[in-house]
Amino acid sequence: MACRILNIKSSADAEALAFFQRLAERGNPADNSGQDVENKVRAIIDDVRARGDEALLERTRQFDAPEIELPLAVSQEELARAAASISGEERSIIMEAASHIRTFHEAQKDKSWFITREDGSILGQKVEPVDRAGLYVPGGKGGNTPLISSMLMGAIPAQVAGVKDIAVVTPPRADGTLNPYMLAAAYLLDINEVYRVGGPWSIAALAYGTKEIKAVDVIAGPGNIFVTTAKKLVQGKVGIDMIAGPSEILVLADEGANPEWLAADMLSQAEHDALASSVLVTPSAALAERVAAALERRCSELPRADIARAALDDWSALIVVPDMATAVEICNLIAPEHMEVCTASPWDILPSIRHAGAVFLGQYSPEPVGDYYAGPNHVLPTLGTARHSSALSVQTFCKRTSVIAASAEFTKRHAASIARLARLEGLEAHAQSVELRG
User: Fold this and answer.
1) Closest CA relative to residue 97, chosen from 369, 397, 391, 379
2) Contacts 24+ apart (CB under 8 A), 386-392
3) Which one of the listed residues 272, 338, 355, 378 is annotated catalytic?
4) DSSP 290-347
5) Whole-prediction pTM
6) Which of 308, 336, 349, 404 has the highest local Cβ count within 10 Å?
7) Which has the closest alpha carbon to 138: 379, 338, 302?
8) What are phi and psi of 253, to 5 degrees?
């Protein structure tokens, strides 16, 4: 393993720019190189629209659980049994994490608002949750590594938004069951609609509906490239949270940072996926060398060492820059999903960070703290899209309706102007509509 070390003088360095471009293009389902994946997923969506539950059952048997039968819905009794099967300590941990996440997302809630003009006109915005949301929760390795945190991070903001119906889809294990920890998390969150189905076919079911799974208004949650491509293709029919790519972390550090901790933090993302990216940016060449050595040693000790090693070799780097100002420029260019600021005064750096999905300040804020427990959402923009996108939030599950209650005085006073604008656009009926009231 050899995580590359790049010595660059400025953010315009050709070698650095080429590396940043590669990062932004890796595993991107919106890229033309994914056309074959898109064609396959489009065929799956069309099949689910045509054959409904029969298509879901067929593909679930093919890819996940060979002998699964309808119904795909998990019973209330099974949810309750799963919650009872885990230890009291584990239930407490899940509920404490949920409490932290709920408190954070409660602070995100928008309010409806109205303004009244002197002429009596009332204008405003009404904020309402969607009626029904669908959550995709990955199954983990054969259902043996249940992604409880993904359940919490998807369901809680939807609940805080006020969504009445929440449907969860997640791939079953080979025997057709779901991991009890996944079911327990749903039960503890008062989610009673869980389906043993995953993959792009489950996204199609959520978007278009089947006899068993009612269509939703918004789909959220992480998934592999096939699931992500399915979300991309149904966007417009339903709302989605984002089109996300492989996981990534960028660590901004000065010479006083602990190299062992930094290496561990970088590996926390590298172990996700061979396409994951872990980047260190620092003005200290000595720190970069120490982190490189720590990465090599610590990576070899991981159960997922092969995955982490591929991510470090192909998509990661230790970037040495002349000063902290250049380091910040690099960070904003990359616009990472997760960004740790491990410097002597991280709060002084924060105002300069313009593009990042989430920022972790100080050496006691490693990325896993945010992934699981602190409260902010861990479903974040990747592949540089933090320049224009935000984390999954309460707003993902809300819509805003403009309210116009014009007074007679307002409409009469401005009728001629409105009609003039309408006629400039060639819309005579528009003009007449307002002139009748003038």
Assistant:
1) 369
2) 386/335, 386/336, 386/337, 386/355, 386/356, 386/357, 387/335, 387/355, 389/242, 389/357, 390/357, 391/357, 391/358, 392/153, 392/154, 392/157, 392/220, 392/241, 392/242
3) 338
4) HHHHHHHHHHTTSTTHHHHHHHHHHH-EEEE-SSHHHHHHHHHHH--SEEEEESS-HH
5) 0.94
6) 336
7) 379
8) -140, 150
Residue for token pair 């984002």: 242
List alpha helices for 8-126, DSSP H: 14-25, 35-51, 53-63, 76-85, 88-106
Cβ-contact 250, 281 below 8 angstroms = yes
Annotate 107-136 with b (16+ C-beta within 10 A) or e (fewer). Answer: ebeeeeeeeeeeeebeeeeebebbebbbbb
Q: Which residues of the chain have pLDDT under 50?
A: 32
* pLDDT score of 33: 53
Count Cβ atoms within 10 A of the Cβ of residue 90 and give its class: 0-12 exposed, 13-18 middle, 19 or more buried: middle
> Which residue is associated with the tokens 């009445």?
164
Cα→Cα distances 351→93, 323, 361, 383, Å: 34, 17, 12, 22
**Catalytic residue check, 435:** no
Under 8 Å between Cβ of 126 and 162: no
Tokens describing residue 262 = 């930094």
pLDDT at 32: 47
Element (DSSP H or E) covering residue 348: helix 346-349
Query: Which of 271, 337, 340, 367 is the catalytic position?
Result: 337
> How far is residue 103 CA from its own chain's centroid?
19
Q: Residue 124 is encoded by which pair of tokens?
A: 């405003």
- Helix or strand run (H / E) with residue 4: strand 4-7
Q: Are strands 398-405 and 122-129 parallel, antiparallel or unpaired?
A: antiparallel
Residue 90 falls in the annotated catalytic set: no
pLDDT digits (tens, 9 = 90+) for 142-198: 778 889 999 999 999 999 999 999 999 999 999 999 999 999 999 999 999 999 999
User: Which two tokens mark 315?
Assistant: 């998509």
